[in-house]
Amino acid sequence: MDRLLVLVRHGQSEWNLKNLFTGWKDPGLTELGIEEARTAGRRLKEMGLQFDVAYTSDLSRAQRTCKLILDEIAQPQLPTIADQALNERDYGDLAGLNKDDARARWGEDQVHLWRRSYDVQPPGGESLKDTVARVLPYYIREILPRVMRGERVLVAAHGNSLRALVMVLDGLTPKTIPSLELATGIPLVYRLNPDTTVADKKVLEG
Questions:
Q1: Residue 102: predicted pLDDT
Q2: Which one, 19, 117, 121, 136, has least CB within 10 Å?
Q3: What are the distances in angstroms from CA 93 to CA 22, 70, 124?
Q4: Taking a C-beta distance cutoff of 8 angstroms, is the pair 197, 205 a contact?
């Protein structure tokens, strides 16, 4: 039994390029982001991977990334489930602000705390801890059972919603998770043991 789970952060978005806090705002992919998504699909194709189901968020940058990947692996009609539970962390009042402007307004230390701490919320938004509390129950209820039945599952989502899953899969802690960065468009290929722990992990870079 394969028990395959592949996580992919969406390709570069227009607001990634502009260095803006994005959160639940819904900018599209840049040309680079489109190519990153296609490259992710080609890397999965080179491994000979096919999927039984895909999951994505309610946001278009993740949905388009998912579609581009599925086109590359010749599975454009794959059943795909979009759910708000997999949305990016909500940055609240910071959404749409330039990160450098935010540092000028609130100071380097405060913005770093909002971005990289585990449990400090930005004004009107979610901490990473809040994001974990949203993503993890959905994973346990909806995604993990399918993986454990031997289905091959693709999840195309966001930096912080996927960090929540990687935290659990890789056994990271509230102290170690803040330093984890997930690159856009780089597939993380997990195979799980019968007890849901990780048997094998591959990062499909360059």
A1: 95
A2: 19
A3: 10, 34, 6
A4: no
Domain count, the chain: 1
What integer pLDDT is reported at residue 178 of this predicted model?
Answer: 82
Beta-carbon contacts of 93 under 8 Å, excluding residues fewer than 6 positions away, are: 122, 123, 124, 125
- pLDDT digit string, tens, across residues 165-202: 999 999 999 999 888 999 999 999 999 999 999 999 99
Q: Return binding residues.
A: 9-16, 22-23, 61, 88-91, 99, 115-116, 159-160
Which segments of 61-177 are extended strands (E)? 80-82, 153-157
Residues annotated as catalytic are 10, 88
Which domain, by its residues, includes 118? Answer: 4-203
Binding-site positions for substrate read 9-16, 22-23, 61, 88-91, 99, 115-116, 159-160
- CATH number of the domain encompassing residue 57: 3.40.50.1240
